Amino acid sequence: MPGRAPLARWLNDTNDVTQTFLAAGQLPDLVNLAGGLPDPSTWPVSDLSDFAGRVVTEHTAEVLGYSPIDGLPDLRDRIAAEFSHGDLNLTRDNVLITTGGMQGLDLLGKVFLDPGQTIAAQSPAYLGAIDAWKPRAPQYRAMVMETNDFDAEAAMTGAQFAYTVPNFSNPSGRLVPEDQRRALVAAAEATGCWLVEDDPYGHLYYDGAPLPRMLELSANGAEVYNGPVVYLGTFSKQLAPGLRVGWVIAAPEIIVALTTAKQGSDMFTSGLCQRVALEAMERGLPEQLLPGILDLYRTRRDALCEAMQADLSDLFTWQVPEGGMFVWAVARDPALDTDRLMKTGLEHGVCISPSSVFDPMGQDRRAIRVNFTLNPPDVLAEGIRRLARATRAELRQ
Ligand code: PMP
């Protein structure tokens, strides 16, 4: 008898660590340092509800009817204008609106990857990207960019695309310096490899001025951008993740290909959410909110790092991130298994993300990702005290 369509790859793929995460959400009095969530207090609730009410009556057909696959033309124009800068000339043909940044990752997999092809990916890598591309069973070439001998051209040769999060990477919190950004762009040009710049944290600089985007560095003054960078943006961290509005900026041929793929995914991103996002942009809401968000998260970053310095410095090493949402801490003792630490942490009332989930091969057990945006300073400090106790307990095993 012919078998039914196999589900095993999907059913068995939810690994042990993910199951434990899900169960952790139910525990009382847990300090959750595992997620990557913005603080709900940063959401502009009354503005968004005002915009939503108004656009439903003022733009009824556009927001309640079917709308274009590639996004509302006004929003595409607005994003093109906002990102055009110096030599970088963008038109709406360079912009696709997506359902969150996450959909951009999914569509890249659909368009660029045949089964088993190679992705060069900044290592460690964003869990959501690994998940998005898993159905294509890609080969990964790890780009470990902290080392002096990192060779961008060697990494990109033969890869379908290179995946990077240059601003405060999820999970490592690392800021890719300008010379390395330039080297990545030069390598993309030399090898013909597309260079994905995933940038949800590009506005979250707590200490210094923002570095140039690779999108800008790859611009050559063409009337319509046609360079190798595929830039992914999102309103999730600037307005609210529930809007599910993101965008891709790239050469027009890529936008056309991704639009074809999007047609077979969700047809279009909610017109209501797009109009609300556009209203927010037109009123300068992201710019108005930013200083408050930066103050809140900078204070929390400092509080977390102080607590870690006090309680974890003999157990882990880390660098204070200059932005973003995460501290990446590497165990001093190579015998510490951070998958096990995650479970022991739950017994002590704290949840962290272990490095294995940010490794496409699931092997890396030497580090943890700690989030600082969701909890106030006293809760962060309590979480770190619990984590220190859990780590010592784990090392005594
Ligand atoms: N890329 C990275 C690196 C992320 O950290 C996230 C969200 N945390 C996303 C993409 C997707 O974000 P969203 O779908 O909410 O826009």
TrEMBL record:
Q: Where are the membrane-spanning stretches?
A: none
Identify a single GO molecular function assigned to this protein.
valine-pyruvate transaminase activity
- The Aminotransferase class I/classII large domain, residue ranges: 61-376
Q: Which domain of life is it from?
A: Bacteria
GO BP terms in the entry: alpha-amino acid metabolic process
This protein's record includes keyword Transferase: yes
Query: Which EC number(s) are documented for this chain?
Result: 2.6.1.66
Supply the Gene3D superfamilies for this chain.
Answer: Aspartate Aminotransferase, domain 1, Type I PLP-dependent aspartate aminotransferase-like (Major domain)
The name this protein carries in UniProt is Valine-pyruvate aminotransferase
Instruction: Please name the source species.
Output: Mameliella alba
Lineage, top ranks: Bacteria, Pseudomonadati, Pseudomonadota, Alphaproteobacteria, Rhodobacterales
